[in-house]
Large ribosomal subunit protein uL18
Amino acid sequence: MANSKRTLFLKRRLRVRNKLRKVNTGKLRLSVHRSNKNISAQLIDDVSGVTLVSASSLEKDLGVVGKNNIEAAAKVGAAVAERAVKAGHTEAYFDRGGFLFHGKVKALAEAAREGGLKV
């Protein structure tokens, strides 16, 4: 049986995370999750296993509830960058998970960079 989309996604996610673990020198990780309806991002400290800041398209104050498009992803990226800078964090590795760096994921990363987060 050929590889399903799900197994290919899981392989890609493990490959990305393993590469990040090899080069991670104590930096934070900006992890992205994209579903069919929403997108979210978290700034994670892997040393202590704690999520420091997060943002999601489900938050009403971002004004993108129910929208799953590039503009919503950009607002989420800007929000997570703003919260991270406010908390005193300016550098992180970008963990795209198994998602391709294209479209919404790319828009989120670029908005986070414009917001002052070195990703």
Observations:
- The CA atoms of residues 78 and 104 lie 13 Å apart.
